[in-house]
Amino acid sequence: MSSPELVIQVLRAELRAAGITYKALAGRIGMSESSVKRMFGQKDMALSRLAQICKAAGVPLEDVLRRAADARPQADTLTPTQEKSLMANPRLLLVAICCLGNWTLDQIIETYRLTEPECIGLMVELDRLGLIELKPLNRYSMRVSTTFRWLPDGPVQQYFRENVVEDYFSGRFDGAGETLLCLPARLSLASSRELLLKIQQLAAELARLHQADRRLASDERDGVTLLLGFQSWESSAFTALRRA
């Protein structure tokens, strides 16, 4: 379903929720009921007409547009080819991660040694790869879901294993709001699946807080990384001590 179709679908749902029939709407905007029905039967609608209908129905236009954007199907992962393209250019991967963190263009070039034209070019490439949708004035929206994850054992995750994990765990984890836990247990398969579901819920909660805090000023937020792993595992040093 295209974006204009989604907007019309959301607008139709808003009218139903408000108890406004096509006949009532027609009277409010000075059209015949048949013309209103025909207009909603089309796959597109002029922005001026959309704004007129929203005003007549008492529905904020920005709410309709936002809900339509939220309803757009989004991918949870990239393809192996897309990830390989990111790994071919470290700066492209950097800007991709910044975009996943909802950094603005200005924030990226103020923080990293990237010129504005170079950063814009990298964002154009991310648009081509399908990670973001670049908009006027160098703004963008994400084309991936809030539960986005890198491919298991894919190019990016392999890079993280080789170059990021050791660096990440070299930290002290004793700052405000920081912690490091390593909790061994013996679980049944059913219990493991239950815990995995809770981990997924935690990831969704992180995404919710991340979205909510976007309203705050940049100096009120800090970059954080939640790194979770859950698997059947024992340290090789301990395995060497097992009885034969």
Automatic annotation (TrEMBL):
UniProt GO molecular function: DNA binding
Gene3D superfamilies reported in the protein's UniProt record: lambda repressor-like DNA-binding domains (1.10.260.40)
Native source organism of the sequence: Massilia atriviolacea
Positions of the HTH cro/C1-type domain: 11-64
SUPFAM superfamilies: lambda repressor-like DNA-binding domains (SSF47413)
Protein name: XRE family transcriptional regulator
